[in-house]
Design brief:
This protein is mostly helical and about 220 residues long. About 70% of the residues lie in helices and about 0% in strands. It has 15 helices and no strands.
Length: about 220
């Protein structure tokens, strides 16, 4: 059982819990989750030690593991589950994309979505390009804020291999969206692409109607240069 697999990690979380830090994290995350109060470097060290002892879960355990973690009130459990999946995504089959979609649309907030979209969903789309557009179009039609954001940021790790036509198309289609998280993601995705192709991003920004926030974020690297 996955609960037994996590026994030692649960003990470590309780041992290192810091109520004062937890209260700060909870406030920063708009009271959407409880926290143990583990700073990211400490949480990663605990995970590293745990993996050295317990090993990575089998891919057939991913769904059980993720659902168990998402049932826990402390946000650190969701971080741990998605990071464990992320460490194993190179060996995963394409069916994992459905689980990544579930992670994006449950207990949704930017902290989990911004990891899952590029590091799990994006990695799977890169490995199985034949399934990407089916999911992207379904996510675009869904109207779900976090799936829309995921469409925009799933290529963040692609660097020079990012699909320019798809990126620009998604940015153009979502440019009228009024939500901060979408406008920010448009700028973020363009800024990341500008590191490899600044002229293309400059041209896009100058020829399309995008929000001031998107424009500002998109041109950050270019303006510094």
């Amino acid at each position: 059982m996955i609960e037994q697999y996590f026994t030692d990690l649960a003990i470590a979380f309780e041992k290192h819990a810091n109520p004062e830090i937890a209260a700060g994290y909870k406030a920063y995350m708009r009271n959407k989750s409880e926290f143990y109060g583990l700073p990211s470097p400490l949480r990663r060290d605990l995970l590293k030690s745990f993996i050295a002892k317990a090993g990575l879960p089998d891919k057939h355990q991913f769904e059980e593991m993720v659902h168990f973690a998402w049932e826990q009130p402390q946000r650190e459990w969701q971080y741990i589950a998605m990071e464990l999946v992320g460490k194993s995504v190179k060996n995963a089959d394409q069916n994992l994309i459905d689980l990544s979609e579930w992670m994006i649309t449950n207990k949704s907030w930017w902290d989990t979505v911004d990891y899952v979209a590029p590091n799990i969903a994006g990695a799977l789309f890169n490995r199985y390009p034949e399934i990407r557009m089916q999911y992207i179009e379904n996510w675009m039609k869904s109207g779900n804020l976090w799936l829309l954001r995921s469409c925009l940021i799933h290529q963040l790790r692609y660097n020079k291999t990012a699909d320019r036509a798809l990126l620009f198309n998604l940015c153009e289609r979502l440019a009228p969206h009024p939500d901060f998280f979408i406008r920010k993601a448009i700028g973020w995705s363009l800024r990341q692409y500008s590191k490899a192709y600044p002229e293309a991003v400059t041209d896009f920004v100058n020829t399309h109607q995008i929000s001031n926030l998107s424009r500002k974020e998109a041109l950050k690297v270019i303006n510094k240069a």
